[in-house]
Automatic annotation (TrEMBL):
This is Ger(X)C family germination protein. The keyword Membrane applies. It is a lipid-anchor. The lineage of its organism: Bacteria, Bacillati, Bacillota, Bacilli, Bacillales. Residues 229-398 form the Spore germination GerAC-like C-terminal domain. Its main location: membrane. It comes from the Bacteria. The keyword Lipoprotein applies. Belongs to the GerABKC lipoprotein family. Gene3D superfamilies: Nutrient germinant receptor protein C, domain 3. Keywords: Germination, Lipoprotein, Membrane, Palmitate, Signal. Residues 23-190 form the Spore germination protein N-terminal domain. It is found in: Membrane. It comes from Siminovitchia thermophila.
Amino acid sequence: MKRFFLLLFSAFSIIFLTTGCGDKEELERQAFVIALGLDKDEKDHLISVTFQVANPQVNTSKAAEAQNEQPSNIISVSAPDIFSAKELTQSSLSRKVTFAHLRTIIIGEELAKTDEFRHIIDSAVIDPELRRESIMIVSQEKASDYIHKNKPALESSPHKYYEFMEERWDSTGLVSKSNLNNFYHRSEGELALIIYATTKRNETVHTDEDTYKAGQVPQKAGDPVQMIGSAVMQNRKMIGTLNGEETRMALLIKRKSPINSFVASFIDPLNEKFRISARVIKDGHTKINVSPNQDPLKVAVSVPIKLQVRSNPGLTNYTTNEKNQTILKKSIEKQLEKDALKLIKKTKVEYKGEPFAWHINARKHFWTMKDFQKYDWEKHYQHAKVDVRFKVTIENFGAQIKPIPIKPSEKD
């Protein structure tokens, strides 16, 4: 009898365990969207949705059979929302369209600046296939044009391109790595920074290597896409942009910076015709002290960083001269503090909000969330007195021998 019930229980267990496979789909029957583009349509209350669908035979064991095939298929349709567009693509695709591997969402700047964009992106999270880890990018041109023109020379698979670019963003700090999850966490008045990109060119030459926006970098060859700077979003709507330098600074003065180190250049204080390049390393969390009980609001920020000097074109003796070392250290601190205060003023005056997540420190001073909302953080921030201090420690000065001085020419 025990054996009978044991067999009966095992049979029912197998049935229950296999019921979850009823809606399974074979891989070869699915069309994996790797990039999704959103644009404003010519007709009101419609959007143009572009799907970049991966070709499963490229970069696989069957690659020899698909030598003349494109790595992806790009389809654009007009629809009221993303889900309707997803269904409409099935009119031309034989495989079931899925967002299971989607990791990049590109929004055209024209659409990002409209009030409709908020409703479009908010409703997108309903789809369980749309992962919140998906990277968000705002393109200057239409998202469809961006996707069509983005043909990286070194990567045949588009999904690999975005995967590798994501690793580079962590090491440069020239863009603010943003995804759906971070975007949704921003409440009404807070500012969100989204990656800014373009395939257009409006090249300019700056002496400071990071003061560019996407499309301005003087690039003569290479991949058509440039990603540098940030699109500033407020209330799920684009209201402006930051260049690469401003984006880096915004990430640096956050309490927990998403970048650990990057290379930057600074004016040589003893020879201002040249700039000194150094690796900047975040030496711990930024210390933020918010005093909401004072009028006006006071915010004190202390940023600990370490520097490793990489190049010294002016050949000023910083290696063995301690006096020169002190001058360089104080000069870099002043340059960083000046840039930080300039950015803070811009966010207060132009955007009337802050992207540094300082409101999290302010919330600790209130008993309830309702009290904090009543305080109106954005309004007080616009009139706040902000003090920013950089604590710079120089680890090394590059060359370990005394530099050879340059002989002045007759022209000098």
